[in-house]
């Protein structure tokens, strides 16, 4: 028995070392994540429960926060800023834009620090590293669904039910946010292991992204400013075709029934389709970069 054990040890010692990611392609990585879907579900539940672990109301805060936000937007911004900006039903307008933006923001901020936050698991056992940013995205999706329910109920209570064909824009808007959130989240979570400043830089960029998106102002206002100052037309196209801008405009088209076709850029559906195709390519690239970088996660942590 001792000789057998010693023989196996010598055989293993002579075996060449190879990285755990060697030969793993994009589809193989997806299959590996799917094979660990139970662990992914557990991590999502853990993230949701940990957020409100020591609070009395617990998960009710997920519902309370958007209700309070909507009330403030309706009473303060809707009655004052909305009238000043000439945007009808301003509370629904701003809350619908903030709902999809908050989804993207929570996805990105959570996934960026996910590998570092789970350093204990990363260093002790091997699981597909993509699971950790995906778990953060899953918990962000839970919060988004709760806010979405509040938004839909508010539309009916305020007499603006989104029962038009524009509601179909909901699906490409969410698809854009998920694809670009996953792609950027995977990349930033890997970079944050090597450079911890990435998570703080992400917060700054997300703050700028909110004000750079047509959430508290309309796309027509941006168009007017560009025409007033004779900015090049391609610069407006770059702004309009930003995935976050398109997702916000799509959510406005879905839930802000007071809007007219003039409030949106021409060919919005086609723009969203092209952006989604580009996002799929970006997701593949970011996952490949993540795979290359994950080999030294344990050493860096």
Describe, in short, the structure shown.
By secondary structure, the chain is mainly alpha-helical.
Please characterize this protein's 3D structure.
The protein is mainly α and 301 residues long. It has one domain. Helix content is 75%, strand content 0%. The chain is built from 15 helices and no strands. It has helices spanning 2-14, 26-35, 37-51, 60-85, 90-112, 114-117, 119-124, 131-157, 170-194, 197-211, 219-228, 233-240, 243-255, 268-293, 297-300. Helix 9 runs antiparallel to helix 10, helix 9 (170-194) packs antiparallel against helix 13 (243-255) and helix 9 (170-194) runs parallel beside helix 14. The chain is globular, with a radius of gyration of 23 Å. The model has no long low-confidence stretch (mean pLDDT 84).
